[in-house]
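FAQ
Q: What does a multi-component entry look like?
A: The components come first, one per line:
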Amino acid sequence: MPFQFKILHSSKKSRARVGKIITPHGDIDTPGFVAVGTNGTIKGIDNATLDAMGVQLMFCNTYHLLLQPGTKVVKEAGGLHAFINRKKPIITDSGGFQVFSLAYGGVHDELKSRGKKKTDGMVLKITEDGVHFRSYRDGSKFLLTPESSILAQKELGADIIIPFDELPPYHIDKDELAKSLARTHRWEIRSLATHLENPQNQAIYAVIHGGVDEDLRKESCQTLTKYPFDGFAIGGSVGKNKRELEELIRFTTPLLPEDKPVHLLGIGDLPSLAATIPSGIDTFDSSYPTKAARHGLLLTKEGGIKIKQGFFKSHFAPIEADCSCFTCLQYSCAYLHHLLKANELTFYTLATIHNLHFMVKMMQETRKLIFEDQI
Amino acid sequence: MPFQFKILHSSKKSRARVGKIITPHGDIDTPGFVAVGTNGTIKGIDNATLDAMGVQLMFCNTYHLLLQPGTKVVKEAGGLHAFINRKKPIITDSGGFQVFSLAYGGVHDELKSRGKKKTDGMVLKITEDGVHFRSYRDGSKFLLTPESSILAQKELGADIIIPFDELPPYHIDKDELAKSLARTHRWEIRSLATHLENPQNQAIYAVIHGGVDEDLRKESCQTLTKYPFDGFAIGGSVGKNKRELEELIRFTTPLLPEDKPVHLLGIGDLPSLAATIPSGIDTFDSSYPTKAARHGLLLTKEGGIKIKQGFFKSHFAPIEADCSCFTCLQYSCAYLHHLLKANELTFYTLATIHNLHFMVKMMQETRKLIFEDQI
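Then the predicted structure of the entire assembly, as tokens:
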């Protein structure tokens, strides 16, 4: 099936809506949480297991896959779905986020967690053409442009791709931000042109920029909605706290066409989801639930629990009594506490399964509430 | 079912035999490989998955479980099977091996791999009573005696337990070794007495010691076979190479009762299995296949392959074309190569699944060959 977005219900109470994104690899119910599998796997969960858990959309990072194993290898394997054995939809980003994180020092958490900070001087030059940078893996030189990012994403072959954009830092003056925005728009339009030469059954979402500046966000929406993008992602700096984020999203979504899906980039904590779904955000990607799991923070309806706390040493109940995940059906908090204390890899897998299952169920519940006009 | 050992076939070609060990948690086909799950989990595989893979016996370490989470917690959970959610048989050791590894500097690999070498002065005193030592986790003091080891193993509640013994170093003169052996025998008999006060449906295997000295091994067999142990494990220093091991086992097994199972402690590499099965070894435990997996060494019928080698970058076939494991059915060498290069946790799980499956299948094949008198 070619890409399509259907709205099944629009809430009477807010701009929240229940929808369905149809892709060549299956459907994505919205609002839906998108799990982040940077290198082509969720950390600690293989893709067959992930499919079975009902995670409908997986986010992979072009930057990482470009450096390892390289998009040519993935293409040779028959594309990312074949290479990583994922049957369900995949979205890739442009690589811009990671490259600019290196430039502006806000190193992406995924890089941080490798324990190798080789960020100084990693971005060599930013020109109208694109960005020259060095691999964080082996120091080799790369050039990422709107065209090369899209061609890399063509080799990966995800269901949804993202144009190359600039990620300006949060602290930047308006003139600089406006210049950056104009260049981002030129880059996105070049990205779209490259995509349209060979659509390959992929959908492309524009990325709305403009930081926390209302005028610039408005300008970004007005500029990019003129082009035939299949959906819109809200990116760039989306505020320094939840209140700024909430206001920004409330202001931005009415400026986007109602019949296109809206994605919020890099946000997935529960308060932010609750704050932005009423404004009509359809999908969210974030490594929060999986990273929290690896740090021993397990999600429950009553909030996160820190499984390493002494209380859990002899707590023989599952994380949540009514949870139907693989972990809760079979293992107690006491065992999970023990596995984490013993630094066992098995902990990371079992904790990640629970947190992702929690997100899947939570989004099901959210869709139900929107159908009932309660959100 | 109470513990039982049945011999189904004795080879006409060697002392190899096919048997079945019956335990309260199910049967173990022999010769059989015993997977090591030190802290109550195979590294990277949860116990429900392990059960489904057909790994019939799991080895857990009393030393580690004593220090974390403590055997009282495990007892409170209803025993080790309930605590770790394992339905199939478990064997625990006495803790002696790890404690004496600390004393003699031959630090057990499992401790090494934690990257924290706090072994100096960890063994405080060895007396006729037992061993005073400090926890490698937090420095707190422990006393392990034949009685306390068995009582700890009663709290864990494994199907098969092991008496407390002394592990002398490989380089020791005969007088010292003889003294150590005599004490080990006294400790094993005290262990047996403690066990028999409350058998709790557990079986207990004696540990045959004597290093590579034939006289002492003979003495150990003669002493320990007089007592009502349910099986025999061959422990202590079993030689500095495969030839010494092979000779030692060939010499020792005829000195043990034919109708009792014989376990070889801590050995699991393929050449050693091939060398000792013809002498009548029934079970082997070793972390070799799981540790090899984590280091990227994948077992195949043609020998181990190092998946990190450049050759595998674009090798889109599974590890073994005819392997029916979860990993080979779904993932290519190229993807596994990529996951390891990217340091992804998922690699460790998928590699461990393959290597353990390989061991299970290899032992099935071995039993078939013994039935056909080819071994």
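Q: Is there any commentary attached?
A: Sometimes. For this entry: DSSP finds 15 helices and 16 strands in chain B.
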